Amino acid sequence: MLGEYRITGRRAADIAASVEAGIAGGGLPPGSALPPMRELAGELGVNPNTVAAAYRTLRERGVIETDGRRGSRVRSRPASAPRDALRTAVPPGVRDIAKGNPDAVLLPALGPALAGAARRYAEAPTLYGEDPVAPELARLARAGLDADGVPPGPLAVTSGALDAIERVLVAHLRPGDAVAVEDPGWGGALDLVPALGMRLLPVAVDEDGPRPEEVARALESGARALLVTSRAQNPTGAAVGAGRAAELRALLARHPGVLTIDDDHGHGIVDLPLHPLGGVTRHWALIRSTAKAYGPDLRLAVLTGDEVTLDRVRGRQRLGPGWVSRLLQHTVVELWASGAVDPVAVSRAYAERRDGLVAELRARGVTAYGRSGLNVWVPVADETVAVTKLLAAGWAVAAGAVFRVASGPGVRLTVSGLDPAELPALADAVAAAVRPGVAGVRYD
Predict the structure, then answer these.
(1) pTM value > 0.85
(2) Average pLDDT over residues 165-169
């Protein structure tokens, strides 16, 4: 089972260290099956509880994963190696459409909003003991959520969407629990779940979001949570429509114990309506980030959900950072109140580039997806070949491995910084890189 490598140690910490040493030295390559706990305990002459504690430590560190009867295995990629590390360096002179950033030209100027936040602070400095959510932010956020049909619930503010996802997962799940996640999907979430010691259950998607039969399979396989991107899904651009939302809500109604998380990071840059899943199961959350519409450095997301979830999130937050800076919260208040971003105009600007690229690619016989958001997903036969050829042609794109678990290979192209005049040349380069014969390949 372990080849030549022998796990050693008498204490849980020593056994865990021995496993990590084996991984670091190559004696335990990715995917290696670890001995059953009782078997290893017998070999080492220790209590099985000692081995169980060592394995638990390794799971919590994201080093191994446990999958029921299949036992424990070394993770295919340690949590300390984030997917961003897989990105290709961009040489000088190459057009970078790999990073997934919004168009800086479409982001609002922060000077007036920061000045407004400073004036608010001068009038009433934030002190210990105040509500962690600024009242004006709560009012504006709740009004927006109500307008989009999000069920009523308390509010929290976190340092971005991934911070919110982590806090919600930890509020209900434990190491070893399974989380259903879109595949292909956001690399940050695909890294976070194993780093928390939880198991990924990949769910295939199409242009309408997670496929119902895949969600049903994940739920029947024991998923404790379902994470769904409402709009502007990264990397495929999928958006959950009314019909798909109804199907998923019907599925979730049969599993009331499952935690549902809606990630609405596309708020402010997508004009498609929101169809949230929250409120069907006992515990749910919806997250709204400001990063894409107002700038990635505004590390702020608004979180709502059921009373128990929000109480746990806010309680744990008080024992750590306490709250997200009121200066940041008031900056967002100023931006929202002033209408600094016109969601319709921003959405149209991104749609012109995204839809234009998809049309150019399809005209050249290349399958491409991009219903909403900043990105276009192109299935390919070989990611390395496609990325290398495009780099040679002057275009840096993101390899699909950053976003995949079990789905087919592809590349992601971020359209936000493109000029419409560039689209034909880019489409020519992509078509040359992915040929022959990828037109019939789907990402699901």
Answers:
(1) no
(2) 98
